[in-house]
Amino acid sequence: MATVELSGLTKTYGNYTALKGLNLSIADGEFIVLLGPSGCGKSTTMRLVAGLEEITSGEILIGGERVNERPARDRNLAMVFQNYALYPHMTVGENIGYPLKIAGIRKDERQKAVDAAAAKVEMGHLLSRRPSELSGGQRQRVALARAIVRTPRLFLMDEPLSNLDAKLRTVMRAELKHLQKELATTTIYVTHDQVEAMTLADRIVILNDAVIQQVGTPAEIYARPANTFVASFIGSPPMNLISGTLADGILTHAAGQLPMAGAGEVKLGVRPEDIYLCEGDDPVHFEGQVYSAELLGDCVLLNIKTDEGLLSARVPPTVQLTMGDTVKLRFDTNSLHLYDATTGNRRDS
Amino acid sequence: MKRSKTLRILSVVGLLIIGLIVLLPFFWMISVSLKPATEPFAIPARLWPESPTLANYASAFRPEFRTYFLNSMIVSGASVVITVSLALFAAYSFTRGQLFALSFMLGAVVLAQMFPHAAIIIPIYKMMRSWDLLNSYTSLILSYVSITLPVAIWMLRGFLVKLPVSLEEAAAVDGASPMRVFRDIVVPLARPGIISVAVYVLIITWQEFLFALSFTSTNDMRTLPVGLNDFIGQYGIRYGELMASSVMVSMPVVAVFFFLQRYFVAGLTAGAVKG
């Protein structure tokens, strides 16, 4: 259990910069999720913390102690790899007990710890199996048990659920969250899946192009994306971004206009759930043709063809629309997001 | 459908013929070893002896043969152990090392293998003489290690590049030192490769003749392939005993190969594909 302090963390491979001056403070016991598309630097960050890559510049403090020069084996961390990295020539029990064996812990004590860890992930009955005889979910549990068998200062998890099928992923996600809260061990979790990030994280760190885009709680990030990258990355379907010009209290865009203060070229962000079909004398903010209507059970997802391109809107399941129908839409003016067209940064503070 | 059937029959027949050509000398070796001294040159020649006898084996299994056998075991055994150990470390460095110079060295290893034995035997002989190592196990073991090591390194490298790095990383995060990772993770997982390299070195060194003949001068240092030469005299060749000895010499390697061929074939292809 420890705090983690990353300051000015940079990693380059030749001419390629994988990580550019990353600063991040992680509190003791916090569940931090690094989220971003592939190649954004999230895995690099984790590998630097683990000690599997050399730092180009910057500093890593774990529990207040600088660990830059410490090899991975002396950092007292536990890591769960994307492909689980179970030792194929060892049984499940030997796999879980390996960190303790290296630490030189006596066999009977080791057995006790292995049994306890295996019981926590409900693998106690399979200790004598080999990894090749296990299903994906079971392998995942063994990898977790190997991480929790000792009391590391930090858990590092590199897309641990990405090789599981959708149903199992949901189950394991819940178990993981529960386990982390129970053990109260600081955790850094890497994923490209925003649902995992939203559900697991205390705080999400969104990375793109080797730079942090935004750090915040899932609710903060969803409610106030700091720039157009975050806005279009978080949310499913993602936020609609509409180019427009602000002048004289009116925002004019290719498919309509609406009143709004400010001036200059902007991008207006509207989440699909903040778009409504016009009724009666509702002001019309947008007009277009239905491109597709997908019934998802609790709602209908409309894709609307406009001069701005496709817009998505989430409307009640009772709405009956077919392809080609003309629809008039209005936005929830209290939930609009405004971004600078050139910098992509959020305009309102 | 019909064409493919004829094709299959043709290929089976072809394989049978090739198999026959390959196996005939071995069959003849066994056949002659069982024939009484008068029979090998009987006309018409018989494929199988009229009255098989083990007399050749009895006289071939003389005290010298036992000495040769022991010498071969020592020299081959030591060569296998040393080559496999060195090759493991070298191949691991070549696989995981990130120095640019390593790729040159890996090329140099191949180069070292290109010289015919006949070309390097004289310099090696002179080296052995200056170190006062002639007519010793050490001279043979040293030269056998040096001639088998290049291929051994490449074969093992073929295995090691296929091991996922994340296993070694996982062990490192679990607290293992580099040597410990090597011992606990790399070596056990490379076992098929280690076995195939061991078989390869055994086969090469067990049958090696040129170095063994050149570097040993007394009977108590000779190895089996050189010992077989004893039956080839100035005035005649004792074929019965020669063949009986040959059968006995072949047995250990054939047995090893029989049980471990699975690994050996895997090793050759692994090296080939990755090399």
From TrEMBL, chain A:
Residues 4-234 form the ABC transporter domain. One of its GO terms (cellular component) is ATP-binding cassette (ABC) transporter complex, substrate-binding subunit-containing. CDD domains: ABC_MalK_N. It comes from the Bacteria. Keywords: ATP-binding, Cell membrane, Membrane, Nucleotide-binding, Sugar transport, Translocase, Transport. One of its GO terms (molecular function) is ATP hydrolysis activity. Gene3D superfamilies: Nucleic acid-binding proteins, P-loop containing nucleotide triphosphate hydrolases. GO terms for biological process: carbohydrate transport. InterPro entries: AAA+_ATPase (IPR003593), ABC_transporter-like_ATP-bd (IPR003439), ABC_transporter-like_CS (IPR017871), ABC_transpr_MalK-like (IPR015855), ABC_transpr_MalK/UgpC-like (IPR047641), Mo/tungstate-bd_C_term_dom (IPR008995), NA-bd_OB-fold (IPR012340), P-loop_NTPase (IPR027417). Belongs to the ABC transporter superfamily. This is Multiple sugar transport system ATP-binding protein. It comes from Litoreibacter albidus.
UniProtKB/TrEMBL annotation, chain B:
It is a multi-pass membrane protein. Its main location: membrane. One of its GO terms (cellular component) is plasma membrane. The chain crosses the membrane at residues 7-30, 68-92, 99-125, 137-156, 193-216, 236-260. Residues 69-260 form the ABC transmembrane type-1 domain. The keyword Transmembrane applies. Pfam families: BPD_transp_1 (PF00528). GO terms for biological process: transmembrane transport. Gene3D superfamilies: MetI-like. It comes from the Bacteria. Belongs to the binding-protein-dependent transport system permease family. This is Multiple sugar transport system permease protein. It comes from Litoreibacter albidus. The lineage of its organism: Bacteria, Pseudomonadati, Pseudomonadota, Alphaproteobacteria, Rhodobacterales.
